[in-house]
Design brief:
This protein is α/β, with parallel strands linked by helices and 292 residues long. It has nine helices and twelve strands. The strands form three sheets. Strands 3, 4, 5, 6, 7, 10, 11 and 12 form an eight-stranded mixed beta sheet that branches. Strand 8, helix 7 and strand 9 form a beta-alpha-beta unit. The longest helix has 29 residues. The chain is elongated.
Length: 292
């Protein structure tokens, strides 16, 4: 069994089309077909079944898929380690972070990563949750850091990084600032600063309205930085997570029956190769107490 056979097998399993798999591997289709046939002979059975224009993975192919993925990823990682050590090449890493997630809890991990990989070349992007998912699907990001995704995708891996509380933020001069706990209906006379770029915030807003908050005035914000600027001038109230930077003179109030909680997760794509820097980044985040 040779590595190019495994690479061709994984490409066909991904594309379910021999022609597209050959194009992705930059090889002539007959060469790819011969390699797959030889691999099937070595493994003792068909890996794919062709029915007219459709290609299906057989039971044996499905059994072999996770094993050969692990084998191929391990071999590639070994080559990258050796190559990076010998050449000191750049270590690229693309991370897409949701607009609603503050970077502060992750700076220690980025610092350690830069120390470990002097050639680290980080590409950091921002967007809402659909943007993050689209970048992952397109291969434009190695990892995503975000809250809850509304859209489900069966190739998406996710790991919880931390769970945090949220609360209603008001300026100290706001009429509600003197209270520790309020009802949703008490917010009705205030300007509500909506955060449509955050799926969790949309759920919290909908629950507030169901609990009695009348949306007399609602401002749609573009970022948490804008929310902070409005809060600082007492131009509205907003529900913000614990880790979101907040201006001075802001009070955090509990809202009766709301109990807003958010889980921030690390996302990547199942079966996609992780670089050495990417594997290290994932281990750093998953092992750290990010809210310490």
């Amino acid at each position: 069994m040779e590595m190019h056979q495994i690479r061709y097998f994984l490409a066909v399993a991904e594309h379910l089309n021999f022609t597209r798999a050959a194009e992705a591997c930059h090889v002539a289709q007959p060469s790819l077909t011969r390699a797959i046939k030889k691999l099937e002979e070595e493994l003792g059975g068909e890996l794919f079944r062709r029915e007219r224009s459709a290609t299906h993975v057989t039971d044996l192919g499905r059994m072999m898929l996770p094993l050969l993925e692990t084998c191929y990823e391990g071999a590639r990682s070994a080559r990258e380690v050796a190559g990076s050590y010998a050449r000191g090449d750049e270590a690229p890493l693309a991370v897409a972070v949701a607009t609603s997630v503050d970077l502060s809890p992750f700076l220690a991990a980025f610092t350690e990563l830069a120390r470990t990989f002097p050639g680290l070349k980080l590409t950091l992007s921002r967007g809402d949750c659909p943007d993050i998912l689209n970048r992952l699907k397109a291969g434009e990001a190695d990892f995503g850091i975000a809250g809850r995704f509304d859209e489900q995708w069966d190739r998406l891996n996710s790991w919880p990084l931390f769970t945090e509380d949220a609360g209603l933020c008001v300026h100290r001069d706001h009429p509600l600032a003197g209270r520790d706990c309020i009802r949703a209906a008490d917010i009705s006379g205030s300007r509500f600063l909506d955060r449509p770029y955050c799926a969790d915030a949309i759920l919290w807003r909908d629950k507030l309205e169901a609990l009695g908050m009348a949306a007399s005035v609602r401002h749609a914000m573009a970022s948490d930085q804008d929310v902070g600027a409005f809060l600082a001038r007492n131009l509205g109230v907003a529900v913000l997570p614990q880790t979101t930077p907040k201006p001075d003179d802001i009070r955090l109030l509990a809202v009766e029956d709301l109990d807003p909680v958010r889980t921030v997760r690390l996302y990547d794509v199942a079966g996609r190769h992780r670089s050495i820097a990417g594997s290290a980044f994932m281990k750093l985040l998953r092992s750290a107490d990010l809210l310490a």
